[in-house]
User: Fold this.
Amino acid sequence: MKMTPMIASFVMHFGEMGSRWGFNRTVGQIYALLVMTEEPLSANDIAETLSISRGNVSMGLKELASWQLVTTTHKPGDRKDYYRNKGSIWDMANRVFEERRKREMDPTLSLLRDIMLDEPGNASEVYAQEQISEIHDLLENITHWTQSLQSLSPEKLNTLMKLGSGVGKVLDMKDKFLMKKSE
Assistant:
């Protein structure tokens, strides 16, 4: 399979972005190629298209499978496995958010909870625990907020994102209303 310049540009860039999202460049390129290709691809097709080793493709597909981002299909009369991206782009975003939460936020929250349970030994540890408690509360709120967002339909998420800073304006109006009401 030969990529067009437009698709090649996207695939290469997505590989670079993948390393910022929690998986390596090659895994990002494999996933981008699968997203950009309408028909399922064999591991050999992927290796040839991306000019990477078959072993690297196999490892990348295993990583994507562990993130639940690819699915395996078969063609009648063909013994090879074929791969395609699993679900929509929204599904992919949710999986990445969920995996990053499990790999980054959950262990941090667990550590913070353990530290908050420790008895402070001196005034500096009391202060440190207060700071840790604030960090914990912030991360808990972010976690609950992102889980709430993940339960929304793509249509509702689009609407919410389009509201953008308008939500802040509504909250400011609410605060002004409550202040006038209390006067």
Observations:
- The chain has eight helices and three strands.
- The first helix runs from residue 5 to 21.
